[in-house]
Design goal:
The chain has four domains: 114 residues, DNA polymerase, domain 1 (Orthogonal Bundle), CATH 1.10.150.80; 166 residues, P-loop containing nucleotide triphosphate hydrolases (Rossmann fold, 3-Layer(aba) Sandwich), CATH 3.40.50; 193 residues, P-loop containing nucleotide triphosphate hydrolases (Rossmann fold); 103 residues, Arc Repressor Mutant, subunit A (Orthogonal Bundle), CATH 1.10.10.10. Helices cover 44% and strands 13% of the residues. Helix 20 packs across helix 21 and helix 21 packs across helix 23. It is globular and about 85 Å long. The protein starts with 5 loop residues before the first helix and ends in a 6-residue tail after the last helix.
Amino acid sequence: MGKLSNNTMQQRKTLNPVDIYTVGHSNTEFEKNGINMEPAYHALQKYFGYTTFLHLQEDIIQDILLKKDVFVLMPTGGGKSLCYQLPALLLDGVTIVVSPLIALMKDQVDSLKANGIAAAHINSSLCFDEMQNVKLDLAENKISILYVAPERLMIPDFLSALKRLNVSLVAIDEAHCISEWGHDFRPGYRQLKVLKEHFPKVPLVALTATATSRVQEDITAQLKLSNPKTYKASFNRKNLFYQVKSKDNAYYQLLRYLEGRKNDSGIIYCYSRKSADDLANKLKKEGHRALPYHAGLKSDLRTETQDKFIKDDVEIIVATVAFGMGIDKSNVRFVIHYDLPKNLETYYQETGRAGRDGEESDCIIFFSRSDMGKISYFIEQKGDETEKQNAYKKLRCMVAFCEGGTCRRKILLEYFGEMYDETNCGNCDNCLNPKETTDGTIIAQKIVSCVAQIGERFGVNYIADILYGSRIQKIVHNRHDTIAAHGTGKEYSKKQWQAFTRELVQLGYLKSEGDRYPIIKLTQDGCDILSGTKGVLLTKPEEKVKIIQKDVDGSFDHDLFEILRSLRKKLADGAGMPPYVIFHDSSLIEMATYFPRSQSDFRTIIGVGESKLEKYGELFLEEIAGYCKEHNIKPA
């Protein structure tokens, strides 16, 4: 069992909380751009339980304290919320946070209150008396952070009331919702473009986890940000393991995967409401605590289901895309796409719900090209031809991600315009378990020759049919059963010829053109293969399908972790809040690694601020001490 000495434990946090801040004392170590950041470090330790900022956080906070407008593009789990929550504690006045969903607001406010921060929200979930109490607290300057929906913020009377307060900062979360080019466009967000007129001297910070360059420009323009400093963090979620498996007996594969994960929280996405209902019911019969979630359920049932999930009363939600945007649950250990996502933006956002606490989490897709037909059907319902073309282009990128033999992380990051130079990320199926390759020169020559003989006018399936020797009506009608390529590939199945052809497209030896029914054409590299001047390695077709099971982290005491998790659940239920609001899994893992025995030891655990130390320190220390005594674990 990994244990650290007390000296080593103290090094876990780089600054002693007693010495971190002295009123009136100026330390050049904390001076940056004319701003003394010592109070920021003090607040970071006191309220959030950290002593160092994540990448870009400190720079963003400095600019906000300098009253500058800021645009922040930072992946889920990257620490966006802290970028406006911490300045709110340092600025004189109230910070207004625009948030799209009631559930998301409640989670954020619960977490802030647990950290000892005066926060509130105003939305339709409050009764009249509760709303009046919040307004009274605002008038008496008792609230540091107020969460509101964009629609409520723009009500004239409400806006007028806010203008009478000392508003120090306006933060617009999920800012991509303001753009018609974004994947979650919400008309109510569009009204926010007048904020600068109402609060001309108040800094605005716009934050989002997913935005293409076009959406970024639209956000800045719509909000009329004044010469904003733009911060773009890496899209790389290093703790997420990406895997794509063939949709071959997917339900059996899923059951095998879930066997050792009875206590892990996860989301399984399905394309339709019916499939979500059916899969949830099948999993319940197998003994899993699973519930469906989709727009076809009554609103109160959806709310109840979401509440059960965030409170760890059910482990698995089987959902359509209707689920997830308002979920701030930190300990989602897996996100599985049982059906193909429609594009990489959606996929990235949905996988972003896994591992928000920074712990290892899995992202798995069950892939079948037949799922493309379902997505194509809805694309065809679009009235605008340009929209159709863009949707098909995004779908092809999604499929290329699934079929690619190179690093999944590299494909994903480069889609969002971020270069990734590593040759092996060490955390995707293609890097951990590279596909076996074979000399594919003859295979490639047969395919390229076939494409040339049919005049570059047909798609992947047709090419595979010819090579396999099929005499379907279309081939006979086109007299392609008489060309030299016909029947030259009987050593492989049609499915394998399709896979080889698509891989040649990915490698640049062929190219695919067209939207719904793309055709295969030659490239110069492909012609070089045919002339014999170039060879090529191709992936050997898979014979067996299985999900890669990563090794379970053995560096912490799993039995103690479960005991602490049970204590956390009991406390959370008593307080009517989600367990992760009390402590993230990452905090419990540190407790089960370092076995803190005193208040000073406990303070060194990540995520333990003054408020949580006071509320929960003795309870958790008592459990840890009892466990150590029972198992004869001595202090290091």
